[in-house]
Amino acid sequence: MTAPVPLWKLAAASGPYVRLAALSGAAAVILGAIGSHRHYSKDEIGQEQRRIFETANRYHFIHTLALLGLPLCKFPAVAATFMLTGIALFCGSCYYTAFTNNRRFSTTTPIGGFCLILAWCSMFL
């Protein structure tokens, strides 16, 4: 009887997805710490910035966890491409807005959201 293969060996054999999730998770924690220790003003603009930051960080964490499931997909490279692009465009533009109160990249937010939707759909295939 052969010994079962450790789960980490199975994940490592199916591509870089667990490592990408690790990097994304570390970035989410770092950005979360920066954003949570940042002083937001008590006015309406500051509260909006905090809300945008919390949305970005929540979506970043959720989709980082989804990256861990990519080795189980039939087309993990497609899902990873959409997932990482979505994280960068959606979360990145939200982080930028939250930290600078500049909406320069807000047009990329819905594109990033659509990429995240496509990533989940491609995981279904």
From TrEMBL:
- List residues traversing the bilayer: 17-35, 78-98
Q: Which cellular component appears as one GO term in the record? A: membrane
Q: How does it sit in the membrane?
A: Multi-pass membrane protein
Keyword Transmembrane included in the entry's annotation? yes
Kindly list the places in or outside the cell where this protein is found, as annotated in its UniProt entry: Membrane
Question: Which of UniProt's keywords are assigned here?
Answer: Membrane, Transmembrane, Transmembrane helix
- The residues forming a coiled coil are none
- Has the keyword Transmembrane been applied to this entry? yes
Q: What is its main location?
A: membrane
Stored InterPro entries = DUF423 (IPR006696)
> Record's family?
Belongs to the TMEM256 family.
In its UniProt entry, what is this protein called? Transmembrane protein 256-like
What is the protein's species of origin?
Temnothorax curvispinosus
Gene this protein is translated from: LOC112453998
